[in-house]
Amino acid sequence: MGQLNKRTLLARLQLLGAASRAELAKSLGLSQPTAGKIVDEMLEIGLLEEFDGDRRQASALGRPGRMLRFDTRSPRLVTIQLGVTETSLSAVPVGASGEDDWQTGFATPSSPAQWRRALVKSAALISHKGLWGVVASVPGVVDEKNETVLYSPNLHWTEGAALKRLIGEVWEAPVALVQEERALALGHQALAPTQEDFLLVDFGEGVGGAAMIAGRPFVPPLPISGELGHTPVFGNKRRCGCGGVGCLETLISTSGLLRSFAASRPRAAANWPAFVEFIAAQGVVPWLAETLEAAAGVIAGALNVCGLRRVVVTGSLVEFQPAILRYLAAAVERGTLWARLGRVEVVSAPRRRTAGLVSAGIERLVLPMIEGQN
User: Are the beta carbons of 143 and 223 closer than 8 angstroms?
Assistant: First the structure.
């Protein structure tokens, strides 16, 4: 019961962001001595910190109330984004802000040995003192329970590469691997806690999604979830890195969009800035409309299956003018059953990978460490 109370109190503080001891006790139905004992323990190990609250919460004597939050001072977790083209790293406190701010990084190489060597060099540039663990965002089909990458269409060398062991050799600390879209969904939920149910869809080097239901990640029986980009699109003949033909991501990933852009303007520059500028001037041209319709059909199908009505769009499509998101939102709405009964919401948001990795780190590394000390 004691361990459950700790997890419940910390989960509530994650949801609230900051709260007083009395507020935590009342909201959880715990006695103030019980809540206070847990808080004192968390303060002693450095998981939480106290700060002066707003004057509006002052006592009768005029002193601001003492508030609690996750520690914002001491770097405790190393967060890693293993991307298709770049790997980024930071050492962050458990009370890290919601903005991604990578301290160092390197171009992602093409083998485990090369990646480990580059990781060692970058690790020397960030804090090593008092670390509690390392949390890595990894693309592909990730078996988080067994800490392995089963399949990665855009980064094949990670498959069976023992990434957890490689990372642990660099820091000699507990390691957790998190599928990259799940990390983004956790980050969005951590900073928008009232949005408990949504499908996050991230556009970039690939196209992936992750569902949050009742404030928790949807965990299917198999470690395959949110692979929206590998849904085949009728009439699409492009070959995908997964080995299939016609996958959605060959059309709407950054490389897929640039390929279509180059085909539509063979004599013009075909780079991302030129593409963004072109869309800003021309809007949704016919070939882009077809691509957005295909993406919307896949997203609408996922909403119909999961019973969700909110979509959070992150990544490359957010760089465009609002007209692009409006077009996608309208196309998604046309394909969802719930739109006949109520409102379907499609919104854009920044990538909040660090916040998601910290949230996963607290759940999978920090709490087990605390429980193991008792």
Answer: yes
